[in-house]
Amino acid sequence: EAKAATFSVLGMTCSACAGSVEKAVKRLPGIREAVVDVLNNKAQVLFYPTFVNEETIRETIEDVGFEATLIE
Ligand code: 9UX
To answer: What is the pTM of this model?
Structure first.
């Protein structure tokens, strides 16, 4: 069963930033969907917990260069 997570993502200033976060998250195993909203500084991710978890997704967003926090 897929699980949803929402992250606060700070530091994105353009839609290309959001695109690079989406691309990086979607490259992880076990991701069903990733939507990044630059205007609201949020990333919503649907994932399969057998393959990936919230912390790995959070660290992946940080690796792209943005401060990420799990909010729900
Ligand atoms: Mo967005 Mo461009 O922050 O280098 S500004 S990708």
So the answer is: 0.95
